[in-house]
Amino acid sequence: MDQAVYAVESAVEENHWWFVGRRKLFAEALSHLNLSPSARVLDVGTSTGTNLRLLRELGFSHVTGVDASPAAVAACEQKGLGTVLLGDVCQLPLPDGSVDLVLATDILEHVDDDAVALREIARVLAPGGRVLLTVPAFPSLWGLQDEVSHHKRRYRIEALTDRVRDAGLTIDTSYYFNFLLFPSIWLARQVIRGLGIQLQSENEVNTPLLNRVLSAVFAIDTKLAPKLAVPFGVSALVCAHKPLPASEPVNPPDDRTIRDFGEQWTHYTKNDGYYGSVELLKDIFGPLLSTDQLASAKVAEIGSGTGRIVAMLLDAGAKSAVAVEPSDAIGPLRENLARYGDRVTCLHIPGHQLPSDLALDYVFSIGVIHHIPEPLPVLRAAYAALRPGGQCLVWLYGHEGNERYLQLVTPLRQVTTRLPHAALSAVSHALNLGLDGYLYLCRFADLPLRSYIQNVLSKFDRDKRYLVIYDQLNPVCSRYYRKEEAQQLMESAGFVDVRLHHRHGYSWTVVGTRPATVA
Question: Residues 115, 121, 127, 130: is their CA dihedral positive or negative?
Fold first, then answer.
């Protein structure tokens, strides 16, 4: 970028309609990411430091800037904007997986090879980390500002999202913005080009009155753009994330798992005995949460099935509960929970659609997250539904302690996940006979999963032990989390003070807190 352009931007960025509206757009987009104030944030192409100021105002405490221009680095240091490193987006001076959020706003258009830049951004992102990208859009808008800013290209959003996916990132949202001013900006650039008007920057084309008018228009634009998905605009925005690594192979996401569980829970609807008891709930919570803390609490459970966990929560003293179930099990769920009257609300929706205005004390998801190929949207919805200081507890299959079990069940699941209900039922009944013998041997020998067998499974009647087997062999997606993956999953959703309990040496109970305040 020309040095004169830096000077113009630095002089006008505080009040100029474009910079003011852009900051509001970024603030709104970042608010939907539900990131912790302690998230590690990188601003690529820091320039005059406007993003650094915004991030500081939003409460982020670990922010680093990178810019290829020594003048930009010096200017940010002079303004006291924190750490700004001299570096190239195509060779970022940070280690792998060291950042939770990258802002790359109007930087890709400056580099010769944007594919390399996007791969670098993906490299420094931690698994589950997010990136917010903006670029100038539509080649037909090429004008003076592109020339003085040394742009290499302008983008169509389809080409941009393809490049982002090629870098190994998953698109969360994408849209054009500044669409209301698109016709006038296109016309103005044709006039400037046609008349040969000489300017150091288009940002000089402004007056106080014009600035107020354009500010009002752009404010409306940035509110509408994410909702309308207009097929044109002066700029484009993309939010994406780096997928979490899978411990086990995960099938592509579709509604197969929802259908399978719907079939399962319409066949098996009873939750009696220890299987549906508050005592089992205490065992799941372990040392992380006491059932006494549920007294008079507003709670929700994601993936409620036939209502087993919701009933436990209400029996333990919860004041009210929201039961979320996307499958055909919504019928048995409502029937099983009818006895609680207006203390429970049943929602026939997927977990990521949990309403954000519930101000809940607790959100639970017991035995569900490990069946969701992309669980982050669900956990972010849980975060948004909590009051400040509220907590989310999930129970996950663990990788540690299940190594030998997985050697047996993984190849078996390649067959059983394809079986119809009747055939899978027959296989599960046969294996249940073998489980009877294994339970007996665990009384005398230190066999794999002995703690779980003796403290949990042996307390179920035979019908419920059969159901546990069926439940292991039925879902098309089952993931076994390592400790660091479980913790990273919760932190990526914005939760802080994440604590883990290795339940009976084979699974993880994980609790995270929505920050009470933002610094």
Answer: negative
- 421 is a domain residue: no
Summarised one tens digit per residue, pLDDT across range 69-120 is 898 888 888 888 889 999 999 999 999 989 999 999 999 999 999 999 999 9
CB atoms closer than 10 angstroms to residue 97: 14
pTM for this entry: 0.57
pLDDT tens profile 242-263? 887 654 443 333 467 788 888 8
Classify residue 442 by its DSSP letter: T
Coil/strand/helix, residue 373: coil
> What value, to the nearest 5°, has the Cα angle with vertex 371 and ends 126 and 303?
110
DSSP β-bridge partners for residue 396:
508
| 419 domain-assigned | no
424 falls within a domain? no
**Residues 203 and 324 occupy one common structural domain:** no
According to DSSP, the residues that pair with 290 across neighbouring strands are none
Q: Half-sphere exposure (CA, 13 Å, Cβ side) for 458?
A: 14
Q: Residue 181, SS3? A: coil
Q: What is the DSSP letter of 83?
A: -
End-to-end, the C-alpha distance of the chain in Å comes to 34
Alpha carbons 86 and 242: distance in angstroms, whole number: 25
Say if 9 falls within a structural domain: yes
Q: Are residues 208 and 315 part of one domain?
A: no
Q: Are 30 and 102 in contact (CB under 8 A)?
A: no
> Cβ of 146: how many Cβ atoms within 10 Å?
18
Rounded to whole angstroms, how far apart are CA atoms 185 and 85? 34
Q: How many residues make up the chain in this entry?
A: 519
Domain of residue 12, CATH code:
3.40.50.150
Give the whole-angstrom CA distance, residue 145 versus residue 441: 77
Q: Same domain for 328 and 234?
A: no
